[in-house]
Design brief:
Length: 103
């Protein structure tokens, strides 16, 4: 399989949405653990991790749909998308570990 081959526009759109959702997941975790009113609001709706998951899933699905329609999605290649996803995952993981080690 050629990593430089163009991918389907939906694969590209949802991959970029995945990168955004991964980073947003880290930012939302930092925010709710650092700002008690946000955590309290999320807990008032349901368990805060359920609310967190629903937010991230909705962002992924809505952005994936929107980004799949954009012109850049027709020009992306698989190798680039894989690198974006790997970098976002590593940065988010380091960000979460570092945050919880400092808190």
């Amino acid at each position: 399989m050629n990593p430089n081959a163009q991918v389907n526009q939906y694969a590209a759109g949802y991959s970029v949405a995945g990168v955004i959702a991964i980073i947003l997941n880290t930012l939302l975790t930092w925010a709710k653990e650092s700002y008690p009113p946000l955590l309290a609001t999320m807990k008032s709706l349901a368990h805060h991790w359920v609310v967190h998951g629903v937010i991230i899933a909705l962002v992924f699905l809505i952005l994936g749909h929107i980004l799949s329609k954009q012109s850049f999605a027709r020009r992306m290649n698989g190798g680039t998308l894989a690198v974006y996803l790997c970098v976002a995952t590593v940065l988010a993981g380091v960000g979460l570990v570092g945050f919880f080690l400092m808190v």
